[in-house]
Amino acid sequence: MGIPAVTALYGSLNAILNIALANRVSTLRRRDRVSIGAGDSKDLLLAVRIHANNAEFVPLALVMILLAELCGGASLWLHVAGGGLLVARLLHVVGMPRRAPNVYRFVGTGLTWVGIVAVSCWVLWLRRGH
Length: 130
Known about the structure:
- The protein has helices at residues 5-32, 42-70, 75-95, 103-126.
- It contains 4 helices and no strands.
- By secondary structure, the chain is mainly alpha-helical.
- It has one domain: Four Helix Bundle (Hemerythrin (Met), subunit A) (Up-down Bundle).
């Protein structure tokens, strides 16, 4: 087995997204002159939560995709999981600033959670013979 190329692809794309979200937080911190927390800035609070939510869920999802790849998961399904994760996280970013409830945030969150659980179950199935 070679390098986990599918995980490398989606790990890289999600890392770029995460840095873009972190940059948004830094930009707003400078603008609003807030070093820690969000101060009174609703924009900064929103940006912090968008970035934090991404940082909370993406690593777990990528670990599960990596485990599936290392256990011999089919490339097509790895791409479905990785692409689904990226789309889910982008939908969440788009949905967060909108008034709740909204379809973007709901679908983004749902796809992220269902994707993590689905890949976790897949990994359990892939390793069943060991």
